[in-house]
């Protein structure tokens, strides 16, 4: 059970404070937490911390998560399950996001009354009551204060929800960041469903180009603004296979290693037609999670061909990087950033880049190469020259060698691939089987997105 | 009692679960348990709560045990990590007599744990990594084929990287050692010095098993000539030479040149130790030490000076010609000019040792240069699953066992105090029936002829005197499993008005405790508890100041209940 729950801003200001059991002293606990957090030695984890008074641990545990710059902290005296508590905290974060529109310092401080009301319903005397949006909406009276009015500028940006699904119909990126219950006043608000297939890709490529590790973590996320009770059917690619041995359809198929579903998903049509049936509550929901490792059906999105010239005598280091994008020609990668750690003491950088929109700079002992947009099938290159005076080699090695100095690399890439899933999983259709009583057809937005979690290339 | 859902059935069950009458009736209780398990309408919090609650239930038969396991099986597939881990813990504890079932459960949990390890939530990832380490202590090969999942990415926070390095270090085996070492080697040049050092220490740990490859990597790292790397590598070498003497030759070849890149106390000590002990194999050892002797005046760390004295004396014994002069200078400085008493004493000690003659000094100083009998990575004792099953899915693995011990120790009696009497609350997970016994135990002093006085304060001296003067009135052996938690023990005894005179600390072998109590007639009961590590029994000897059998018997039964209760609480 939880003794207290509080939310701190990234600077440590308490935004929300709630004591559930009255067994622990006052508000200064939040301050204590922040002091401990900032004063923590580097090798200790901040996830769980214990309070100390006068050199004695008094056995109060702080457990927190960081979510969009905020600290959500729970304190407890009991030796409870860390998994459940962390899950609860992230669930609370999602709930707050659902009810307040989005979760950030501004929305929380604008909706303090709503947040307290919500916390009252979710937790009682430190025990979880319910976290289902459906149940909670019966009890919540306060309206969320929404900050941002709809703005045309949002149309151009590509957010997680609401993207360039079709050229003619573009959901504003703010559409998904509105509270689930704001429609109480004006019922004419659009019925919308956002379905996202999001994959995180972690890759490790050896210096000789061979693939050491590929790992895809996928999620199907749903954010629904439909009135509850409407049933929904999500059709996945029919060649979707689970496990190493299953075979479906002809051709390569789409294979994942493990799948887990949200408990509300009904799987009676999954075996035969790969259809997920569910009655989503309003708000955000992770319908399905899946993992895939070592065996990717499509080629990797990026290959890097580095060549390094290292002149030990003069301390001159020349790095030539060629980046090839192996996506299909119609797709593109956005916000590509290459991060290359350099040997200590690099002083100057001169660069020759293949196109003007790119940018390269030195920072924190590493080279950052930014490529805002990379078209599929294209090839980009950059030539970087640096001086490393603090790394003098032993005398007699005056000739340039291709051996890279220690401390260089590995390079890591971060990027986003809109409209692309690395596993190949696609949502075939999204059908709402019982038409909600509303006046208009609900809008359905389906998006596919991959982004890098760690894309590392050794040099 | 937490909220489990809104249905009436649930409410009814909730009441039933808390009702002591139903708890006392095994058959009814069992039925309730079965119905609880079958409840489908629980959300994940309710499920986690039920699983936690079921920890207190002990099935009567093997058949019932497997029934329950089968019924609960679906929880292991839940999409919520909390439920899966709760179920895993329950399975591990219920199946404590079936190691193969436990192994099966751990295999099934592997998937969810690995998913949590690569989860987007860093905090969840951290908790999962800590549990992975816990499992690896018992099943070293468990995650070996998934080693790639534990490679760090540069954007991860520091604490996760450190955990991952630890995990990598523990799951290394013949197949993946090459890849793991290559990965770790990449970390050694990380921008963060702390992380780089952690990676080097990890390589040092792996070197205990795969010496040659690791020593080569470490030697290459020396070529970087960076202070923070060199100092850690030299420290690793020192530990390694002590544990694996076969790598001495390679280490000695790598050492020359290091002294220029070491500035901190730890690194200097390690280097000087190596030069002293293995100086006969390092050609320039005397000259490196000479540099240290030259600069001894500006040396800030007394520990380095002490190490230097010992090392130079050792080297003098093996290479007298080169060292005699500077040893003289060093001794002169330490004895005449040094202000730190410890260093001065060490100097004087060395001087007197030399006065006793070279042979004598050799005999004393030239101790063994390595101790390979210390543990190797592979034959580290594998801890049985049962030793940590109760800690699974709690904060213990997240803090780490050692830190947890400190935390719970420092919490002290003032926190334990109020908790112990109401063990019927949800906090502890002991079985239910012994707790009822405990209540009986508390009632007993009132009902029987025995009435122990609450504030009997005996001094240790008085106790000792009385103890020696009396004969053993009663001796008995009680069953006992595992270690003793002195704090809990003491608190429990206080509840029944038995005073603790002295007690060994936790984990001592053999474990002893001396207790005293006084009844309302002034009769003293002095007790010795003796726990031998081998036998799972506690030997109880009681001495009584007035020989009265009936009070002795009731005293024994009080003591027996307390010991039985505590023993059951822990197991």
UniProtKB/TrEMBL annotation, chain A:
Protein localization: Early endosome; Golgi apparatus, trans-Golgi network membrane; Membrane, Coated pit
One Pfam family per UniProt: Adap_comp_sub
Any one GO MF annotation of this record: protein domain specific binding
CDD domains tied to this protein: AP-4_Mu4_Cterm (cd09253), AP4_Mu_N (cd14838)
Lipid bilayer topology: Peripheral membrane protein
Biological process terms in GO annotation: autophagosome assembly; Golgi to endosome transport; Golgi to lysosome transport; protein targeting to lysosome
Gene3D superfamilies membership: 3.30.450.60, Mu homology domain, subdomain B
Gene Ontology cellular-component annotations: AP-4 adaptor complex; clathrin adaptor complex; clathrin-coated pit; cytosol; early endosome; trans-Golgi network
Swiss-Prot/TrEMBL keywords: Coated pit, Endosome, Golgi apparatus, Membrane, Protein transport, Transport
Residues in MHD domain copies: 190-458
Broad class of the protein's primary localization: other
PANTHER family per UniProt: AP COMPLEX SUBUNIT MU (PTHR10529)
Family: Belongs to the adaptor complexes medium subunit family.
Function noted in UniProt: Component of the adaptor protein complex 4 (AP-4). Adaptor protein complexes are vesicle coat components involved both in vesicle formation and cargo selection. They control the vesicular transport of proteins in different trafficking pathways. AP-4 forms a non clathrin-associated coat on vesicles departing the trans-Golgi network (TGN) and may be involved in the targeting of proteins from the trans-Golgi network (TGN) to the endosomal-lysosomal system.
Name recorded for this polypeptide: AP-4 complex subunit mu-1
Record organism: Oryctolagus cuniculus (Rabbit)
Lineage start: Eukaryota, Metazoa, Chordata, Craniata, Vertebrata
Automatic annotation (TrEMBL), chain B:
Matching InterPro entries: AP_beta (IPR026739), AP_complex_bsu_1_2_4 (IPR016342), ARM-like (IPR011989), ARM-type_fold (IPR016024), B-adaptin_app_sub_C (IPR015151), Clathrin/coatomer_adapt-like_N (IPR002553), TBP_dom_sf (IPR012295)
Membrane spanning residue stretches: none
Keyword Membrane among record annotations: yes
SUPFAM superfamilies, sorted: ARM repeat
Iron-sulfur recorded as keyword: no
GO terms assigned for molecular function: clathrin binding
Subunit comment: Adaptor protein complex 4 (AP-4) is a heterotetramer composed of two large adaptins (epsilon-type subunit AP4E1 and beta-type subunit AP4B1), a medium adaptin (mu-type subunit AP4M1) and a small adaptin (sigma-type AP4S1). Interacts with TEPSIN; this interaction requires the presence of a functional AP-4 complex. Interacts with GRIA2; probably indirect it mediates the somatodendritic localization of GRIA2 in neurons.
Primary site of residence: Golgi
Alphabetized Pfam families for the sequence: Adaptin_N (PF01602), B2-adapt-app_C (PF09066)
Entry superkingdom: Eukaryota
Residue ranges of coiled coil: none
Single GO cellular component term: trans-Golgi network
Protein name: AP complex subunit beta
GO biological process: intracellular protein transport; protein targeting; vesicle-mediated transport
Functional note: Component of the adaptor protein complex 4 (AP-4). Adaptor protein complexes are vesicle coat components involved both in vesicle formation and cargo selection. They control the vesicular transport of proteins in different trafficking pathways. AP-4 forms a non clathrin-associated coat on vesicles departing the trans-Golgi network (TGN) and may be involved in the targeting of proteins from the trans-Golgi network (TGN) to the endosomal-lysosomal system.
Domain Beta-adaptin appendage C-terminal subdomain: residue ranges: 452-564
UniProt membrane topology term: Peripheral membrane protein
Similarity comment: Belongs to the adaptor complexes large subunit family.
